[in-house]
Amino acid sequence: MAAGFKTVEPLEYYRRFLKENCRPDGRELGEFRTTTVNIGSIGTADGSSLVKLGNTTVICGIKAEFGAPPTDAPDKGYVVPNVDLSPLCSWRFRSGPPGEEAQVASQFIADVIENSQVIQKEDLCISPGKLAWVLYCDLICLNHDGNILDACTFALLAALKNVQLPEVTINEETALAEVNLKKKSYLNIRTHPVATSFAVFDDTLLIVDPTEEEENLATGTLTVVMDEEGKLCCLHKPGGSGLTGAKLQDCMSRAVTRHKEVKKLMDEVFKSMKPK
Amino acid sequence: MEGVMQTETKIRAESGIESGPRGSGCSLRNFACEQNLLSRPDGSASFLQGDTSVLAGVYGPAEVKVSKEIFNKATLEVTLRPKIGLPGVAEKSRERLIRNTCEAVVLGALHPRTSITVVLQVVSDAGSLLACCLNAACMALVDAGVPMRALFCGVTCALDSDGTLLLDPTAKQEKEARAVLTFALDSVERKLLMSTTKGLYSDAELQQCLAAAQAASQHVFRFYRESLQRRYSKS
């Protein structure tokens, strides 16, 4: 009976739950799904992580390669993110060139890396003007159940913390780079940007961490990326219903608590990793 | 009806420049808007903000491909073409922002199973490009007669290293700023429709920028109203 109602009138079905201040999966309006993170699972990558936000699963693999630094910034390296939304994760995507959602997500991740200064690009430079590291970050979504941006940001951060770069010295005589694979060091992660996404319903209600059904029924979405000092790296609101300043304030406070939760989880995971 | 109306309004709102670290000098650059300048699209507009200029054309409500049609409302499509080069990932991201903003205000339910296409061409970019695109899109939608529940406008704020707020920054000011925030506000209650930001800033600064953008949007909406009044009073 409920399943029939849900198919015919999904919005009305949803509103019945919202009136009681909860959601069909039993969560409260401000509650996140269970977050799990697993790092270093990909042996061939220099850094990797797997993040599950409820059913949404994103895996991030980072490969470091050599490249020439850009001519206008000879002391900087590159960080190249790419989000891949394949038909595996959802029926909405077709195989072929990246669709709009994948491109928007890739641009969002690139903006977060740029704005939050999570790593200093100068740290990636080996020899100014000649050689620098290029970090290719591939984020592959294995299961799309909403809130892809939060999962991707978390996966990227965890993978970056897991990256170990070998020491490189430039041999003066031959001018070739010599890589010492035995001596590896972690990247210097300066800030920890954490994304919190909200969905707006009926122009008034804000719910946190929407699932895919909720995203389809919502009238707008909002993603806030915050670092540990409470500074905002990104306020991404791609259209949708209007929000007042007061509502934004509520979102900010929820983002602050979410940041603490995520940071705690990450610290636990990294502490439990055995040092190599 | 060929109304090629050129309306130029010089809008400056100076709320006083204080010398403290939170001084804010608010002044928008000169803007100008020209409507109905292209004969083929159903609606067109060219919006100029200082030296930044964007040309917008709207086709709609028109026929939609069966794969893209939505049974109960109109399908909105936005194409943004940069001045030089081919459109890339950044353009796709901006198209999504503009499209979602338009979807929030256009009454798509009145034209189900149709498509409304907005095409934007960047003519010159001298800072505050996204805001100029939003303004041009709004004027073009009005010119095409697409039913909307409100008008919207784009406002850009830049925060420099000592926290001074600058509205409608030029390209040079944007590069030197610590953070650049672009907002789209609606005309009925000045609610925030769209926001995209670059750089690091605090929560208090966000609220400050939002308040300044809401004040500045008054001027933009007044300009829209005057230019439309002038255009329709002549005919």
Automatic annotation (TrEMBL), chain A:
The keyword Cytoplasm applies. SUPFAM superfamilies: Ribonuclease PH domain 2-like, Ribosomal protein S5 domain 2-like. Gene3D superfamilies: GHMP Kinase, N-terminal domain. InterPro entries: ExoRNase_PH_dom1 (IPR001247), ExoRNase_PH_dom2 (IPR015847), ExoRNase_PH_dom2_sf (IPR036345), Exosome_comp_Rrp42_subfam (IPR050590), PNPase/RNase_PH_dom_sf (IPR027408), Ribosomal_Su5_D2-typ_SF (IPR020568), Rrp43 (IPR033196). GO terms for molecular function: mRNA 3'-UTR AU-rich region binding. GO terms for biological process: exonucleolytic trimming to generate mature 3'-end of 5.8S rRNA from tricistronic rRNA transcript (SSU-rRNA, 5.8S rRNA, LSU-rRNA); nuclear mRNA surveillance; nuclear polyadenylation-dependent rRNA catabolic process; rRNA catabolic process; TRAMP-dependent tRNA surveillance pathway; U1 snRNA 3'-end processing; U4 snRNA 3'-end processing; U5 snRNA 3'-end processing. It holds the Pfam family RNase_PH_C. Keywords: Acetylation, Cytoplasm, Exosome, Nucleus, RNA-binding, rRNA processing. Residues 31-166, 193-256 form the Exoribonuclease phosphorolytic domain. The keyword RNA-binding applies. It comes from the Eukaryota. Transmembrane segments: none annotated. It is found in: Cytoplasm; Nucleus, Nucleolus. GO terms for cellular component: cytoplasmic exosome (RNase complex); nuclear exosome (RNase complex); nucleolus. Belongs to the RNase PH family. This is Exosome complex component RRP43.
TrEMBL record, chain B:
Keywords: Cytoplasm, DNA-binding, Exosome, Nucleus, Phosphoprotein, rRNA processing. Gene3D superfamilies: GHMP Kinase, N-terminal domain. CDD domains: RNase_PH_RRP46. InterPro entries: ExoRNase_PH_dom1 (IPR001247), ExoRNase_PH_dom2 (IPR015847), ExoRNase_PH_dom2_sf (IPR036345), PNPase/RNase_PH_dom_sf (IPR027408), Ribosomal_Su5_D2-typ_SF (IPR020568), RNase_PH (IPR050080). Residues 28-147, 151-215 form the Exoribonuclease phosphorolytic domain. One of its GO terms (biological process) is U4 snRNA 3'-end processing. Pfam families: RNase_PH, RNase_PH_C. One of its GO terms (molecular function) is RNA binding. It is found in: Cytoplasm; Nucleus, Nucleolus. One of its GO terms (cellular component) is nuclear exosome (RNase complex). Belongs to the RNase PH family. Homodimer. Component of the RNA exosome core complex (Exo-9), composed of EXOSC1, EXOSC2, EXOSC3, EXOSC4, EXOSC5, EXOSC6, EXOSC7, EXOSC8 and EXOSC9; within the complex interacts with EXOSC3, EXOSC8, and EXOSC9. The catalytically inactive RNA exosome core complex (Exo-9) associates with the catalytic subunit EXOSC10/RRP6. Exo-9 may associate with DIS3 to form the nucleolar exosome complex, or DIS3L to form the cytoplasmic exosome complex. This is Exosome complex component RRP46. The gene is EXOSC5.
